[in-house]
Amino acid sequence: MNIKILYIIFFLQIYSADAQTHLNDHFGPEQGLSQNSIRCLLQDRNGKMWIGTSDGLNHFDGYDFVHVKREPFNASSLSSDHINSLFQDKYGRIWVGTESGLDVLNEHGKWLFNVHLPTGEKKYITNVIGLNENEVAVTTLENVFIVDIDVNKNKIIHDISFTLDGKIRTLIPDKKGSLWIATTEGVLKLDRKADGYGVVKKIRNDHVSALIPWQMSIDAQDNLWIIASGRLLFVDTKADSIYLSEYVSDDYVLTSVYVDQGGELWIGSLETGIDVYHITTNGKLIPSDNVHPENANLYLYNTMIMTIYESNDRNEDIVWIGTAEKGLYKYSRSKNGFKHYENYFAKTTLAASVYYSILKDKNFLWAGTSKGLFRQNVINGHVEKMNIKTPDVQAEAFYTLYKDQRGKIWAGTDGGLFYFHTESKTFLPHPLPVPSYHNLKILKITEDKKGTIWLCTNRGLFALEHGVHFRDYNPIIKPLLNSTKNVVINDISEDEENAYWIGTSQGLILLKGLTAKIFKHDISAPQGLLDNWVIDIFCDSKGHIWIGTSKGLSKISKNENDVYCFDHYTEKNGLPNSFIYGILESDDHNLWISCNHGLIRFDPMNFKIKTFKAEDGLIREEFNSGAATKDEKGHLYFGGLGILVSFNPAKILSNQHSAGLILNSIRIMDKETDIYTISESTPLRIGYGDKYIRLKFSAIDYTNPIKNQYAYKIKGIHDDWIQNENDRVISLLNLPSGKHTMEVMAANSEGIWNHQGAISIPILVGAPVWKQGWFLTAVGLVLVGFGYLYFRSHVRKKLMIEKIRLEENERVRKIAAQDMHDDFGNTLTRIGILSQMAGHKLDQDKTQEAKHLLQKISENSSRLYQGTKDFIWALNPESDNLWETMVRIKDFAEDATSSSGLNFNATGISEQLKNCNLHPGTNRHVVMIMKEAITNTLKHAEATNAELSVFYENTSLEINWTDNGKGTSGDQNTGNGISNMKTRALKNGGKLYISKPEKGTKIQLKLNLSKYESKYL
Q: Any bridge partners for residue 218, and if so which?
């Protein structure tokens, strides 16, 4: 089903064209303003707006209103809540003229002092006007005072009232420093003299005498425009003449006047809104084509315009309009480039809020809706509903309008085809030879170069050749779609090769003569058709074909193989929405595209995209297919749901105003801090424990504050700008201690960054306690004390260790001497005795006995030799290693068992044992223990197998000698050899275990090396 048909069903409930979406943002009490009655306006040097009302003063940053009011029992507050005039001096102070006196505030709204007038009484202040950097003019109904501007004293230096005639109403300075004053008697010019200001010119006539001046403005030629008793007066200051302007209707009661920076004259009235004129020579006024006051007047009717104001910034986009009963309005030039027609049609019928088709023909704008066809006379704004002659078919929805080359206007409806009969001003039916014609819906009418009228319908494609001869193209199209049902044709466009591109609900068709080719969406072909629902087809001025689908925009081109391919643009490429309704080309060759979320300006040369949404002046965003056209002046028209706009693309302005920046507040750990004391010399101080800081800013650009952007950096931490997007609050977490400089800048709604307007905030983060000077000093003293104590302890420990080492060396020497004495002495004694006995036996010729004794002498000598070798080996420091010790035991065992027939095996002796160092002397005891065990096996066990094994882990050492001999009896376990072995084990902090008696023997030596070492250290 075509999208237009779906819209008919959906909008049976009428969409109201009077929806109060504010194009020129309105501010009243609901938005925070103190009152709706606006008296005066001022924008200060920081960009903040000050609004004087009949109930107090407000200052506004685009986001929040802050009220400043009189406090009944506080003399340091406003003199009155009835604010008449505002001025800011060179010191940034705000001068406030009230009905009860003149007050001066600082730029944050804090009351400073009251300026006392010469009479000593509080006066009704009517105007406060800056004359130059040093002087301000203050007026009451009777007096004009010149006040000296000084930072401390503000005194009256001259009262010039006596030189003036009549009651003072309004005044204004010119560029040359002269002061113009309008009174009830005329217009006076005053110049600065040595002793004050003096009157140099008086301009009078009957107009001023009969009318009471109210407001005055000055134009670029220094001519004056005065609102007096509801009329507009033009004062030609060169001809000294006053004229009653004839260019503004006498039916209007005028209430305010303002000449903007572009030289155009804004006039506010009672109940009729505003008008804007271009000023020519001699005071002639021409309605401005740069401003669309009708947009603003949608909201300014039925009230009194009190004041019109614009800041001094040449790039300012905003004009402020204060009213008597409807609060404050801001008029944005960049948002008012669109002219809204929907409100004119809405006055005729609420049904005219869904626009399907548009046609601009000379002085008439035609609009097809879901409930009929309407025409507006663009000269006088009159709207009429057109007569439709439908004897057989009821036509309500007008989907398409087209004016052909012969000037004939065609209309496609839900009841068939119609054409406009000029004489009767009636649309007449144009029957077509189509079965069930009453169900035919004409969705698009267009014309090719030959003058053939093409009809895109819900039942296929038809043509009227030369506007007369009917032709059915369904026999060509239907076979491509493999469908017997009706085919919905949405659009058709002719390219430069005279081929036709046809958009359907089931794909895209290329028709050349009678040959057709179809393109359908293929998920595996990214350069193919984006979606089968082709809504709009457009051929631009360069011959490029653009396709609008429900999934985005595509451009058709040919690759190097002469094959058609599609370049796609979707939300991923920056489109606000991918549902494309209409495509038009402006005179500068940009494409303008309507979708579900506003209008898109697409530059096909550099692919730049700019979106215009409700807040950019459209009011509403959802458009409709078919509702797009271009007139002979190059103006574009788009329509949709509750919206019908036109615009000149060349006059769509962008917001060039540089956004200022204000720091609103700082919260440290959710506690508010004073921001007004922060400066380069007094940074923001943050304690080390204050982990969370929130800084709130206001980007001062009033066009679209919600689109303003923020960025910040902190030197030394984040040297590149961090985008905070549209969030006004910047949160900082866990700043390191030390001095930092935070820089913040803002961008306006167009994304234009103001680098010159960036603000710097010095921040000092306190160091933690352990980094502060006093703490470091204390810690230093403590460390020195501990260092001294440690040094003394270290020296004492070294002395103690040296003493222990000496004692240990002495002990080792004693043990070594004792062992030498015991082992070597006993052996030598035995050798001596055996030698004497052998001598006696030889003397007695007992040769055999002597040989036996000599054999024993030889054995003892051999034992003495081995003992000497072991003793010398043990004394070598390189032998204090477990690996060396175990290798020596293994070598001894291999030598001892090699001739005995005993099968010997050793396990666990690896390179890892080199990492274990033994205490001096331990190696010798271990060797002696294991030698004794090996000797016992060879002498007594009668074993056939023996094994030496070692296990070492951390500080635990276990050495085992195991044989399979006959074992030992209990008596043998208590012999001298065993006793010596156990004694040696105990001396070295270990234990000796003997197991498996009478079933083989296992001798196990266990040593705890750490325990043993600690015993001597």
A: 224
Question: Which are the contacts of 823, defined by CB distance < 8 A and separation ≥ 6?
Answer: 867, 871
Asked if residues 34 and 20 have their Cβ atoms less than 8 Å apart, the reply is no
**348-523+589-651 shares its CATH topology with 660-767:** no
The answer to whether 906 and 948 are in contact (CB under 8 A) is yes
DSSP characters over 526-589: TTSBS-S-EEEEEE-TTS-EEEEETTEEEEEEE-TTS-EEEEEE-GGGT-S-S---EEEE-TTS
DSSP string, 816-861: HHHHIIIIIIHHHHHHHHHHHHHHHHHHTT-HHHHHHHHHHHHHHH
* Residues 6 or more apart whose Cβ sits within 8 Å of residue 1015: 989
Q: How far apart are CA 322 and CA 306, in angstroms?
A: 5
Give the DSSP letter of residue 658. Answer: P
Architecture of domain 879-1017: 2-Layer Sandwich (3.30)
> What are 133-163's pLDDT values in tens digits?
889 999 988 889 989 888 776 677 778 877 7
Which contiguous run of DSSP H or E holds residue 207?
Answer: helix 206-210
Angle at 773 between CA 767 and CA 779, to 5 degrees: 105
d(C-alpha 912, C-alpha 1), whole Å: 87
Q: What is the DSSP secondary-structure string of 53-79?
A: ETTEEEEE-SS-EEEE---TT-SSS-S
> What pLDDT, in 10s, does the model give residues 188-205?
999 988 777 888 888 886
Mean pLDDT across 1000-1017: 67
Q: Does domain 348-523+589-651 have CATH number 2.130.10.10?
A: yes
Q: Which of 501, 419, 498, 496 is nearest to 456 (CA)?
A: 501
DSSP assignments along 674-702, one per residue: -STT--SSSPEEE-TT--EEEEEEEEE--
pTM comes to 0.73
Rounded Cα gap, residues 603 and 625, in angstroms: 21
Distance in angstroms (rounded) separating the CA atoms of residues 126 and 141: 7
Burial 968-981 (b: 16+ CB within 10 A, else e): beeeeeeeeebeeb
Task: Round to whole Å and give the CA distance between 94 and 106.
Answer: 6
Rounded (10°) angle between helices 922-936 and 847-875: 150
Q: Which residues contact 728 (CB under 8 A, 6 or more apart)?
A: 63, 664, 696, 697, 698, 699, 710
Here the tokens at position 984 are 């040696």
Tell me the C-alpha to C-alpha distance, in Å, between residue 61 and each of 43, 329, 667: 10, 15, 19
* Residue 892 φ/ψ, nearest 5 degrees: -60, -45
Q: How far apart are CA 491 and CA 508, in angstroms?
A: 10
Residues 6+ apart with CB under 8 A from 316: 261, 310, 657
How crowded is residue 544: how many other Cβ atoms within 10 Å of its Cβ? 16
- In this structure, the chain runs to a length of 1017
Residues contacting 105, CB < 8 A, separation 6+: 68, 93, 94, 96, 111, 112
More confident residue, 869 or 156: 156
Question: 638, 627 in Cβ contact below 8 A?
Answer: yes
Sign of the CA dihedral 253, 255, 260, 263?
positive
Q: Taking the domains of the chain in order of start, what are their residue ranges?
A: 348-523+589-651, 660-767, 879-1017
* Residue 718 in tokens: 């984040």
Q: In sequence order, what are the beta bridge partners of 67?
A: 58
Binning pLDDT at 50, 70 and 90, where does residue 901 land? confident
Strand partners, 442: 457
- Fold classification of 660-767 is Immunoglobulin-like (2.60.40)
Directed axis angle between helix 922-936 and helix 976-987, to 10°? 160
With 0-12 / 13-18 / 19 or more C-beta atoms within 10 angstroms meaning exposed / middle / buried, residue 416 is buried
SS3 assignment, position 241 = strand
